[in-house]
Specification:
2 domains, alpha/beta, 234 residues, 60s Ribosomal Protein L30, Chain: A, 32% helix, Alpha/beta knot, homodimer
Chain lengths: 234, 234
């Protein structure tokens, strides 16, 4: 049992609340049995700390309430936390979700959860919100551990993986029915919440489609992306 | 120009930051030109206050920065705010979204935005998160002013509007293709983020469907609801 907040491990984990240390150490902390289990299954879990006498995990280290609060910085005492690493295996699957400058952690988390649900197992990120942001992690519900992440922009992706059909989404595009004939590898591209996809990315697109709506200027990007991933999943 | 934070109007608007006063006064404050315009178009706008010399609205009252901060309680100075009322016209349209115990403001806002987008113009609410919560309002992007709200549970709705086909969504249900033959008025029912629809509501359903997924336990409720509204919109 660790009961000293001056323990070097405790101090190191507490530092992971700051993005600069998460970036440096390539580690981050998750809360909740469901997400810890998802990290463990994916081989992304490094350690577990708990204030409980028993957990479903056999390698959990017992810590005091005081130490748990120090590690998480939260007023409440988390029953258990996991220290994780993301896999950056650069695997490019046949179904790719390409996100350009998605800024909202909730949208990012929702999109990652839907990406896994609909078989888009590679996510290409260009100027994305930090994936280890706690709000992103919570919204993914553990999905982020089962995905492959690649950091590049649409043009570089198109140059490197030219066999992937590029589908752009925007408020005024062709009907989504035009995607019915699309076969083979593809990348669905979604743009920033405010400004959408950049001009240079739109110029690369093989298809530019939109979801028909009424009464609103646009759909939430997480919703639009999920409807399209569901639509083209087969 | 109002420059005194002791002005009775300023004090009354500042109080609307608390839910109990919003409930009592049936008023709430929105920020942002886009949402203020949506409220105005829907006839829900009562007043506008601004720190700007000119706004797109001709009836805005000029206030000092100090007064604006007092009214919104925010550290930043909002350029303008609108004081609004929701319409509770109890109109039940042919396309109804019935939400049971949706708790997350972001999910609620996303669902309302999608409901308007896909022509579900009546939203029936049973134990919902407060609609005038600022996070809900922001996520709706103004859609909440164009919708009709009815407060009742699924059983009461079913008794009162028995011509509406009830469609329940749950993680393990029939394929959504079974909805292809559904015609006429319908209500799409979505349940709480953690526990889903209640047993008594499921027993009322004419259809219980799910969206096929892999690798995740469920979809985000805002995503699942939006995919289904999009699917059955015609």
């Amino acid at each position: 049992m660790i009961s000293s907040v001056d323990n070097p491990t405790v101090k190191a984990i507490a530092k992971l609340r700051q993005k600069k240390y998460r970036d440096k150490e390539k580690k981050f902390v998750v809360e909740g049995e469901h997400i810890i289990e998802a990290a463990r299954e994916a081989g992304c879990l490094e350690a577990i700390y708990t204030v409980l006498d028993a957990t479903p995990f056999d390698n959990a280290t017992r810590v005091s309430h005081h130490v748990m609060k120090k590690m998480t910085g939260a007023k409440h005492v988390a029953p258990m936390i996991g220290v994780c690493q993301l896999r950056f295996d650069d695997l490019v699957h046949d179904r790719v979700l390409l996100l350009e400058h998605i800024q909202d952690p909730g949208n990012m988390g929702t999109l990652l959860r839907s990406a896994l649900a609909f078989g888009f197992k590679t996510v290409v990120l260009d100027r994305a919100v930090d994936l280890t942001n706690p709000k992103v992690i919570r919204a993914t519900q553990g999905a982020l551990f089962a995905l492959s992440f690649v950091f590049m922009d649409a043009a570089s992706f198109n140059d490197a993986y030219s066999d992937h059909t590029l589908i752009a989404t925007l408020p005024k595009g062709d009907p989504i029915d035009t995607l019915k004939t699309v076969r083979g590898p593809l990348a669905l591209m979604l743009g920033n919440e405010g400004s959408g996809l950049s001009e240079s990315t739109l110029n690369r697109a093989d298809y530019t489609v939109s979801i028909p709506t009424e009464g609103v200027e646009s759909l939430n990007v997480g919703v639009a992306g999920s409807i399209l991933m569901h639509y083209v999943r087969h």
